[in-house]
Design goal:
The chain is α/β, with parallel strands linked by helices. About 30% of the residues lie in helices and about 20% in strands. The protein contains twelve helices and 20 strands.
């Protein structure tokens, strides 16, 4: 039995898709344990480029079972669209399943997401408007629907009516929009259930079997700094990206997770609102990173905010999520810069802080940067540590010192083979 967790070590968009794709070659079961269709993973392999929102990143390996776990907010329309794109690209999806306990994203969730974000005005969160927050709100309020509800039409209809008895007054009285039809929504989602019937399972027996007999890989969405408890609240997601959440969202005993890989970019990016101390801004370097790194959201296409490597935030993420190692991505994007910077602390109200504080203080944080010489030689062709320029190696070693855990993998391009396994 061996379980590896792959999580985001920053604010999300770290390149987890490629890393999960790499690890999935040695896995028997890949589980997505939280989040929804509000963020994506990009997979590049010999069959093409695939942008995934819900489907686990192990889908490109024949014979590997992929599971959307009970901790996910499941949007059936998005899921079916993804399956169609994968199959058109030559990917076999026969071993792709969704747990019957996963929370359904319903039409009113997407509508409420938009209406509530508009109502916040200048205080908006920066949500992707995919309905994920409202779906998890309904889950906590115990009026959410589950994927298994799609298999019984009468039960589905009763649950839709019950949910709308609370939702429709909000739509009509607070926002002044028409009420939603329980009959129309029931018919729409019943049709989804008929298409998905063979994929909807009780995953517990499956997970237990692979715990006894195989290798399991669990993947999260976004990053630790978007965690609702440990992140820059309220500029966070609605479910926990921490490795500990995989025990709940995938149905795995906590003691079974023996390896936690934190994926971090060689610089830092963020999408949406909220404090981001290392942000470079709109100068030439920030634009260089954004354009060369393709820093635009997979789901929304929004330009990502770009900054230097935040050692404070990454060390904090490593500590709260129990990371055992780092997979460093996009080192090649820094090629050609005369100097590179790492944040080693924050100035907050005249004091030096070396951890991530609550929002009221994080809003005031100013980065303390350490500057290292850059490198002009390309890293894209490197396949071992010795192939890297000396200054790039120094940069990696300094990241290890600041974060306190080893860098085990270094990505120097989007392809699977553009990855360096570091000594040790």
């Amino acid at each position: 039995m061996a379980v590896t967790a792959v999580i985001g070590a920053q604010w999300g968009d770290e390149g987890k898709g490629k890393m999960v794709d790499l690890f999935a070659g040695q896995a028997d079961l890949v589980i997505r344990y939280q989040g929804g269709a509000n963020a994506g993973h990009t997979i590049v392999n010999p069959l093409g480029t695939f942008k995934l929102r819900l489907v686990p990143s192990g889908i490109c390996y024949p014979g590997v079972t992929n599971l959307i776990g009970p901790g996910v907010a499941f949007d059936p329309e998005t899921f079916l669209t993804e399956i169609a794109a994968l199959e058109q690209g030559g990917i076999v999806t026969d071993l792709l399943f969704v747990d019957e306990r996963a929370t359904l994203v319903m039409p009113w969730h997407r509508l409420l997401d938009r209406l509530e974000e508009e109502a916040r005005g200048d205080a908006k969160i920066g949500t992707t408007l995919k309905g994920i927050g409202p779906a998890f709100t309904d889950k906590a309020a115990r009026r959410g629907l589950k994927v298994g509800d799609l298999l019984d039409k009468a039960w589905l209809g009763s649950q839709v009516e019950w949910a709308l008895s609370a939702i429709n007054p909000v739509l009509t009285r607070r926002f002044g929009v028409p009420a939603m039809s329980a009959t129309a929504i029931t018919e729409e989602y019943w049709a989804y259930g008929q298409v998905l019937r063979e994929r909807i399972i009780d995953s517990l027996p499956l997970v237990r079997r692979f715990l006894r007999e195989g290798q399991i890989l669990v993947e999260g969405q976004l990053g630790v700094l978007r965690d609702p408890d440990w992140g820059t609240y309220p500029y966070v997601t609605s479910s926990s990206p921490l490795a500990g959440a995989a025990a709940v969202g995938a149905g795995i005993p906590p003691w079974a997770i023996g390896r936690v890989v934190g994926v971090a970019k060689a610089y830092t990016t963020s999408v949406g609102e909220g404090p981001f101390p290392v942000e470079i801004g709109e100068d030439a370097t920030g634009d260089y990173l954004r354009q060369k790194g393709g820093e635009f959201g997979v789901v929304t296409g929004r330009p990502r905010r770009c900054g230097w490597f935040d050692g404070v935030a990454t060390r904090y993420a490593a500590e709260v999520s129990g990371m055992t190692e780092i997979a460093l991505t996009k080192l090649d994007i820094l090629d050609g810069l005369s100097e590179v910077k790492l944040c080693t602390g924050y100035y907050i109200d005249g004091a030096i802080v070396d951890t991530v504080p609550p929002l009221r203080l994080m809003e005031m944080a100013r980065p303390i940067f350490e500057t290292l010489p850059g490198w002009s030689e390309p890293t894209a062709g490197a396949r071992c540590e010795a192939d890297l320029p000396e200054n790039a190696r120094r940069y990696i070693r300094r990241i290890e010192e600041i974060v306190g855990i080893p860098v085990r993998l270094v990505s120097v391009g989007p392809e699977r083979n553009e990855t360096i396994t570091m000594p040790g």
